[in-house]
C-alpha cells in the first residue's frame, strides 16, 4: 500500500516511429504531477526517422499515406502557431526526458521485460502501443490501464471516433480501461463522451483527446488512492473496427454535409 505522500510509480507503453502529440502531452503531464513518478516509456519502433514515419504510414494506409502525412505536418504547425510557448516548453521537456524514453523493436523481448521489472512500477499505462501480452502488462503490481478513444463494447478496434461519426452517432466516447488479454474488453475505470453534431471530425477528436487525458490522470490518482472503481462492460459487443478507406472518408464528408444542411 502506498503512503499518501508517496507518488505512484508508473511506466508507459507506446508504439510507432515517433510519439504522437497526445502521447507527448500525456508524458509531460505525468512528469509534472507531484503525485506521480514517471519511470519511463517503452515504445515499440524499428527506427525514429522521417523515412520510418513515411514507411509506417504507407504500410498501414497505402494511398492515404501522403494526405495523412500532410495533415500531421499541418496540425503540428497549427499547434505551434496557436500556442508557441506551450509547444516550446513541451518540446524542451521531452528533450529532458529523452533518457527515459526507450525505443525498441520488440516490446515483449526478454531484455525489455527485465528492464520493466527492474523499475518496479506500481502501474502500467498504455497509449498507442501494440497489443500487450500478459507477460508485460501484469508486471506492474497494480496492473495496467489503457486509453481507448471509443465507447465500449460497441466501438472496439481502430479509429472508432471516425466510425462513430460515420455511423451518425450523437456522441463519441473515450474509455480508460484495465488491460486484459482481450482487445478493448477490459474493465472500465473512467469514461466520457463529447457531442458530434455538425462539427468536423478534427474538432471532435481534439476535444475527445483533451477529455481522455484528463480522465487518464484522474484514473491514475484513483488507483493510487485505492478508490478506483472497476466495472465490467455492459451491452452488446460491436464489431472490431479497422482503419477507414478512402471511400469511407469521402462518404463521411458527404454525410456530414447533408446532416448539417438538414437533409440526412
Q: What is the mean pLDDT?
A: 88
| Largest beta sheet: strand ordering | 3-2-1-4-5-7-8
pLDDT below 50 for ≥5 consecutive residues: which ranges?
Answer: none
Please, what is the oligomeric state? single chain
Return the domain count.
2
Assign an overall shape.
globular
- The gyration radius over C-alpha positions equals 19 Å
Count every beta strand, where a strand is a DSSP E run of 2 or more residues.
Answer: 9
Written description of the protein model:
A seven-stranded mixed β-sheet has the order 3-2-1-4-5-7-8, with helices on both faces. A two-stranded parallel ribbon has the order 6-9. Helix 1 (21-32) packs parallel to helix 8. It is an alpha/beta fold and 264 residues long. The chain folds into two domains: 7-142; 146-264, Rossmann fold (3-Layer(aba) Sandwich). The N and C termini lie far apart (55 Å). The model has no long low-confidence stretch (mean pLDDT 88). The protein contains nine helices and nine strands. Helix 1 links the parallel strand 1 (8-15) and strand 2 (36-44).
